[in-house]
C-alpha cells in the first residue's frame, strides 16, 4: 500500500501527462472560420506503460505543448530531455530538478506497484496503461486541467475535483481501483497542486517561450491523384496537402463554388519536420470528374486559397498520352524504315551495329516504358487511364 502511495505520488509529480479531447479539433478543421479562432492550448504529459508479464514492464514518457513534443523521458538516465531551447519555460533549475527527482521516483515505483496490485485489480497480462496529465489555457487564462488513465486503450479513470472517478463504461474494475486510490489523501492533494498550480504556471511560461515556434507559418503544397477505384465506373479522387503549419487546415473537393458533401477527410498526420499532411478523398462516377477541383485554405496562405483543377490535369494527361503515342508511331516508322533499308542495302548492317544509335533508341524506349508504367506525381498529374 505504501508503494501504491509512492506510485501515486510519482504520478502526480510527473506533472503533465494528458491528452484527450483533441479529436474535436480535427472536426473544426473543416470549417474555414475556425482558422482564426484561438484554440485552447494544452500542456500535457503522456505516460505509456506496457506490462508483458509479472516481471517485465516498459514505460515511455513525453511532454507536449499542444501538438508539439517538447519533452522526452530518458528511461536509461532517468532524466528529462528538453527538446527545444525553450522547453524549460522559465522554471528555475531547482524546480526542474525537483520535478525530475519526482518523476524518477514515480516512474521507478509505478510498474512495481501496478504489478503488485495486478491480480487484485484484475489486470490481465499483457496489458497497457496510458496516463495523460495536463492543463489547458484559453485566451491567456488557465481553463482547466485533467488527469486521465486508460487501461488496454480504453478510458478507465480520471481525477475529478479532488478524487478519482471511474470512467463511464469502465465498470466495477475501475470502481475498485478508484476506491483504493481514494484512500490516499496525500496523493490526491499532490495531484491537485500539480494540476492547479504547477502545470498552468509551466504552460504559461512555455507559451511565452515557444511562441515563435508555435506561430511558425508554413505553406502547404497540394497535389491530386487517383486512388483505387471503389467499384467499376467510379473513381476515387485524392487530394494531398502537405508541409503546412500550424495544424488547422480546410480542404474540400469543389465543383465551382459548390462544396462536395461526400468529401472524406483523413486524419491529419505529422511529417518528420514538424509540419502536417492531410489526404482528402472524393468518390465520384467516372463521368462526373469534369469541373472538380480541390480547394485548400490555410492561415499561411493569407486568403489566397490553393485550387487544383482536375480539368487542367486531364488536359495535361491527354497531351502526355498524345506525345507518347506520336513518339511510338515515329519509332515504329523509323524502325521499319531501317529494316527496309537494311534489306535493300546490306552495307547498312554495319551502320545498324553502331552502338550509339542502338543505345539511343533503347534509351528512348526505356523512357517511354517508364512514362507508361508510372506517371510522375511530381507533375501533380491527375492520372486517368491512357486509353
Ligand atoms: C516476460 O516478457 C518478456 C518480454 O516479452 C520476456 O522476454 C520474458 O521472458 C517474460 N518473462 C516471463 C517470466 O514470462
Ligand atoms: C517567469 O514567469 C513568471 C510567471 O509567469 C513571470 O512573472 C516572470 O516574469 C517570468 N520570468 C522571466 C525571466 O521570464
TrEMBL record:
It is found in: Cell membrane; Endosome membrane. It comes from the Eukaryota. It is a single-pass type I membrane protein. The keyword Cell division does not apply. The chain crosses the membrane at residues 313-338. GO terms for biological process: antigen processing and presentation, endogenous lipid antigen via MHC class Ib; antigen processing and presentation, exogenous lipid antigen via MHC class Ib; immune response; positive regulation of T cell mediated cytotoxicity. GO terms for cellular component: endosome membrane; external side of plasma membrane; extracellular space. This is T-cell surface glycoprotein CD1e, membrane-associated-like isoform X3.
Amino acid at each position: 500500500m505504501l508503494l501504491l502511495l509512492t506510485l501515486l505520488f510519482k504520478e502526480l509529480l510527473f506533472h503533465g501527462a494528458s491528452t484527450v479531447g483533441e479529436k474535436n479539433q480535427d472536426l473544426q478543421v473543416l470549417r474555414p472560420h475556425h482558422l482564426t479562432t484561438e484554440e485552447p492550448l494544452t500542456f500535457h504529459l503522456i505516460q505509456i506503460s506496457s506490462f508483458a508479464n509479472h516481471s517485465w514492464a516498459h514505460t515511455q514518457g513525453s511532454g507536449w505543448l499542444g501538438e508539439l513534443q517538447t519533452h522526452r523521458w530518458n528511461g536509461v538516465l532517468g532524466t528529462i530531455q528538453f527538446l527545444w531551447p525553450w522547453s524549460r519555460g522559465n522554471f528555475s533549475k531547482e524546480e526542474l530538478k525537483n520535478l525530475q527527482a519526482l518523476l524518477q521516483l514515480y516512474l521507478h515505483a509505478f510498474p512495481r506497484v501496478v504489478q503488485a496490485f495486478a491480480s487484485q485489480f484484475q489486470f490481465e497480462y499483457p496489458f497497457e496503461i496510458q496516463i495523460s496529465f495536463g492543463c489547458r489555457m484559453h485566451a491567456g487564462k488557465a481553463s482547466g486541467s485533467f488527469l486521465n488513465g486508460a487501461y488496454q486503450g480504453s478510458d478507465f479513470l480520471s481525477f475529478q475535483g479532488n478524487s478519482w472517478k471511474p470512467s463511464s463504461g469502465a465498470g466495477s474494475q475501475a470502481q475498485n481501483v478508484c476506491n483504493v486510490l481514494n484512500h490516499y489523501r496525500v496523493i490526491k492533494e499532490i495531484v491537485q497542486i500539480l494540476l492547479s498550480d504547477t502545470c498552468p504556471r509551466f504552460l504559461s511560461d512555455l507559451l511565452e517561450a515557444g511562441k515563435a515556434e508555435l506561430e511558425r507559418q508554413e505553406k502547404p503544397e497540394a497535389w491530386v491523384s487517383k486512388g483505387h477505384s471503389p467499384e467499376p465506373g467510379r473513381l476515387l479522387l485524392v487530394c494531398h496537402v502537405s508541409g503546412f503549419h500550424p495544424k488547422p487546415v480546410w480542404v474540400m473537393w469543389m465543383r465551382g463554388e459548390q462544396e462536395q458533401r461526400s468529401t472524406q477527410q483523413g486524419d491529419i498526420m505529422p511529417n518528420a519536420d514538424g509540419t502536417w499532411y492531410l489526404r482528402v478523398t472524393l468518390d465520384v462516377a467516372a463521368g462526373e470528374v469534369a469541373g472538380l477541383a480541390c480547394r485548400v485554405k490555410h492561415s499561411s496562405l493569407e486568403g489566397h486559397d490553393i485550387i487544383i483543377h482536375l480539368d487542367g490535369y486531364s488536359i495535361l494527361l491527354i497531351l502526355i498520352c498524345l506525345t507518347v503515342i506520336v513518339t511510338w508511331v515515329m519509332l515504329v516508322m523509323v524502325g521499319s524504315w531501317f529494316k527496309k533499308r537494311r534489306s535493300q542495302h546490306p552495307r547498312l548492317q554495319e551502320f545498324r551495329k553502331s552502338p550509339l544509335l542502338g543505345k539511343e533508341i533503347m534509351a528512348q524506349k526505356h523512357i517511354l516504358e517508364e512514362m507508361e508504367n508510372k506517371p510522375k506525381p511530381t507533375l501533380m498529374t491527375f492520372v486517368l487511364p491512357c486509353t
